[in-house]
Write a structure and sequence with these properties.
five-stranded mixed beta sheet; about 575 residues; ten-stranded mixed beta sheet; alpha+beta
Length: about 575
């Protein structure tokens, strides 16, 4: 049996569109099955269609405002014409089962899966509905930028305050400027950066001393198999100035050159733009010759530590981490390290003459002096005494080595713990040292280049304990070719010689006499003073400096017959510091 679908009678409206006002007026005899007194809900085409009629909505929950009670499509408003109750028995179309089967279509795009670390932390958090407003987000971004800008300004001001406080506390002049000294000229470091001068290859005039072979086993040292730093109290180390060198005196009498200096003094001049601490060099013009000297007990005999670092060091001079104490400790470490990494089996490489500063029978440290001559001009030559500390045999050829040691005193100042980072992040350790000790590393590189060393060895030496400044351990040794390392630290050889040539030309224009070149303690510049002929001599009386301004203690008396500075001054100063 096929069911018949009966369609109710549709009244005709002759007056227009839509149903007539009264179905009884147009078709009185027609019976209808449509519910009576049910109005139509007005809507516009722009509105979203939801439910046609909500018969389950109670009148008591009507929203008294004119706005919809919910922003979702299909929600009834207070103006809805269906705000009354119907009898479900008389109106069978309003069936709750039909209403329960009705579902709204969600037009939102499906949520994309989140991956990465944020998803792992946010997957268990309840996701609350948030309003994504572009204006609010823009305000948040502006606030973050402003906060970051304030943080940068705060950190910058704080670092500047630390730098100013450090300069006021530690950066004192290396020599006391006397009232009778006459300042002739001052040269800012900015002029040094533009200088350039090329010199031909030097010639060796004389080699003195004897060298021991380097022990290659030290190249395999790591922080896990560190070695204790030994002390060599019986070996003599010599820090002789230019005019006290008998070989240089002999070469000067033979008119071999016009300018005379040592590698330490030349390296100080070459790397002057990188220096922060004050230093001084004595210049003597004798006839047509020029001698660059250092004072007894000069700052050049010691090694600076954390010179170019922004972290302030303790101000008290007797503190083991003060600038003076660290410089004495660094010189002590450097001397002992240069002798410990040798093969001490008595096998030495001897040269033309023995050590010119040692007495017969003295135990001398392994060192060789190369007296080399460079041509600065057609009629101007420069002779310098250069040092190498060891020799190694490579491919049946002997290669010269320079030995130096970097020292770690407290990791909290450098920010890098060598025992943890040296084996896995050696580049980061070297980069930190280049930032904190740029001048010292540049001077060591310049000295290696002047001596034409084939290799420069850098040792990493640390304290056994941060508060023990007398016992140390070797954590590693690394070798570099001097010219390759110079390129790595941006040290230009032509600029180095340009600085020396400009200072030599300036001093050659001066009259005969004694002068001193002083690095300003607070400004990047050097000054030239004319001093009396007896300045810095034993009978020269200077005004005493306050205790807190003294950079160096008075030079100790040396034994008769020895040049000044030939005794082991560094160990004596180290003992004095410990006391």
């Amino acid at each position: 049996m096929v069911g018949v679908f009966e369609v109710g009678a549709v009244p005709f409206n002759p007056d227009g569109w839509g149903p007539p006002d009264s179905t009884t007026a147009t078709a009185p005899s027609t019976t209808t099955t449509l519910p009576l007194h049910v109005p139509f809900a007005p809507f516009s085409r722009s509105e979203k269609l939801g439910r046609i009629a909500d018969f389950t909505r109670s009148f008591a929950n009507a929203n008294p405002s004119n706005r919809p009670s919910s922003g979702k499509p299909g929600a009834a408003s207070s103006e809805s014409p269906f705000d009354f109750s119907l009898d479900l028995d008389t109106f069978p179309l309003a069936n709750p089962e039909d209403d329960s089967s009705f579902r709204l279509v969600d037009a939102k795009p499906p949520t994309r899966p989140k991956f990465g670390p944020k998803w792992r932390f946010n997957q268990h958090r309840p996701q609350l509905p948030q309003r994504r407003d572009e204006e609010v987000e823009a305000r948040k971004r502006e606030a973050e930028k402003e906060r970051a800008r304030r943080d940068r300004l705060y950190n910058l001001n704080r670092s500047n305050q630390n730098q100013q406080r450090r300069e006021a506390a530690i950066f004192k002049s290396s020599v006391d400027i006397q009232p009778e000294w006459n300042m002739l000229d001052q040269i800012p470091f900015s002029t040094f950066s533009k200088l350039s001068f090329s010199v031909p290859e030097p010639e060796d005039l004389l080699l003195c001393g004897a060298l021991e072979y380097y022990d290659r086993s030290f190249d395999r040292i790591t922080p896990k198999n560190e070695r204790r730093l030994e002390r060599f109290k019986n070996r003599n180390f010599f820090k002789v100035t230019t005019t006290d060198d008998p070989v240089i005196r002999r070469l000067a009498n033979e008119d071999k050159a016009t300018v005379f200096a040592t590698d330490t003094i030349l390296a100080t001049l070459m790397c002057a733009p990188r220096s922060v601490y004050s230093w001084d060099i004595v210049i003597q013009r004798v006839g047509n010759k020029l001698f660059f000297d250092k004072r007894d007990g000069s700052q050049l005999d010691l090694l600076s530590v954390h010179e170019t670092s922004q972290e302030p060091l303790p101000e008290a001079k007797d503190d083991i981490n003060s600038a003076y104490s660290l410089s004495v400790e660094a010189a002590y470490i450097n001397q002992n390290f240069s002798q410990q990494v040798l093969v001490r089996d008595g096998n030495k490489v001897s040269f033309d003459e023995p050590n010119p500063f040692a007495n017969e029978g003295d135990e001398v440290a392994s060192v060789a002096y190369r007296y080399r001559r460079w041509k600065l001009d057609n009629d101007m030559y420069l002779i310098a005494r250069c040092e190498v500390q060891s020799v190694v045999e490579v491919n049946n050829q002997k290669s010269f080595l320079t030995l130096n040691a970097l020292n770690e005193f407290d990791p909290k100042y450098s920010g890098v713990d060598w025992r943890q980072k040296l084996e896995t992040q050696r580049g980061a350790v070297l980069a930190t040292e280049l930032k904190n000790n740029a001048n010292k590393l540049a001077k060591w590189t310049a000295q290696s280049i002047l001596a034409s060393a084939d290799l420069m060895k850098l040792g990493y030496v640390s304290r056994v304990h941060p508060r023990d400044h007398f016992n140390h351990v070797i954590l590693g040794v690394v070798g570099y070719k001097p010219r390759d390392f110079a390129a790595q630290i941006n040290l230009n050889t032509a600029n180095m010689w340009g600085i020396v040539k400009s200072i030599v030309d300036l001093c050659m224009k001066l009259n005969e006499g004694k002068y001193v070149l002083v690095k300003d303690p607070s400004k990047p510049q050097v000054r030239i003073y004319e001093v009396p002929a007896d300045a810095f001599e034993n009978d020269y009386v200077e005004e005493p400096l306050p205790e807190e301004e003294q950079v160096q203690p008075p030079a100790e008396d040396t034994e008769a017959g020895e040049p000044n500075g030939t005794t082991n001054d560094v160990e004596a100063k180290e003992t004095e510091t410990q006391t």
